[in-house]
Design brief:
Blueprint lengths: L2 H18 L8 E5 L4 E4 L13 E4 L5 E3 L8 H10 L5 E5 L2 H9 L4 E4 L18 E6 L5 H14 L5 E4 L3 E6 L2 H27 L1
Parallel strand pairs: 7-8
Antiparallel strand pairs: 1-2, 1-5, 2-3, 3-4, 5-9, 6-7, 8-9
The structure holds the ligand CSCCC(=O)C(=O)COP(=O)(O)O and zinc ion.
Organism: Pseudoalteromonas rubra
Protein name: Methylthioribulose-1-phosphate dehydratase
Pfam family, one: Aldolase_II
């Protein structure tokens, strides 16, 4: 994909994510692979109102190759997630209420979801009976350290559709932007189902 096309696809995704309420304030950051490397959002902007000048370009080794301004504070995490699988071509990071709350309720290293037909919207799933295990990492202001923990985890348990950062949000991955958008939409649906189910069970 050419970088101009990549930026427009991410601008469109940002508008949609904002309409869903999943990138409040200046939360979230997005990237997509291009012929030269990848483009990533600049830091501190409203991700629902991005313009082509709100992106920076990097090669896949992480060297800045174009664009001005400050790259997303979480650029190194995008780079680390791309390094996990050559299949990943787009990463969208969101701050929804459901992902933020559920990640805090999950004290384990993985949020396990099972029994929902919607799981089949995720690449590789064919049945509600399979268990979807989304890795959960403690939040860290040291992004390189967080990126190292994600890579270490992946070495024993492959990260497939995304990761949750506790009290922070979701990083969703996919083979292209439409798959990543579908993964976010399905995961958000599943997070909301789980939150509702847990609340109802607690009150029963
Ligand atoms: C108020 S959002 C705090 C930073 C963050 O988590 C985020 O997703 C946005 O950071 P960026 O530097 O990419 O704008
Ligand atoms: Zn964030």
């Amino acid at each position: 994909m050419q970088s101009a096309q990549a930026k427009h696809a991410l601008i469109d995704a940002g508008r949609w994510l904002s309409e869903q309420g999943w990138v409040p304030a200046t939360g979230g950051n997005f990237s997509i692979k291009t012929e030269q490397g990848f483009v990533v959002t600049a830091s501190g902007h409203d991700k629902g109102a991005l313009q082509p000048e709100h992106f920076l370009e990097f090669n896949i080794e992480g060297t800045h190759t174009g664009g001005t301004g400050k790259p997303s504070a979480e650029t190194e995490l995008h780079l680390a997630l791309y390094a996990l699988s050559a299949r990943t071509h787009c990463i969208l990071h969101t701050h929804s209420v459901a992902a933020t709350v559920l990640s805090r309720l999950t004290t384990e290293h993985s949020l396990n979801i099972q029994g929902y037909e919607m799981q089949k919207a995720l690449h590789g799933f064919t049945s509600h009976l399979e268990t979807l295990a989304i890795p959960v990492f403690d939040n860290d202001q040291d992004i390189p350290a967080l990126a190292r923990r994600v890579a270490e985890y992946h070495a024993h348990t492959p990260v497939r559709h995304g990761v949750l950062i506790r009290g922070h949000g979701l990083y969703a991955m996919g083979a292209d932007i439409s798959e990543t958008r579908r993964h976010i939409e399905a995961l958000e649906f599943l997070f909301n189902c789980e939150l509702t189910r847990r609340q109802l069970e607690k009150n029963a």
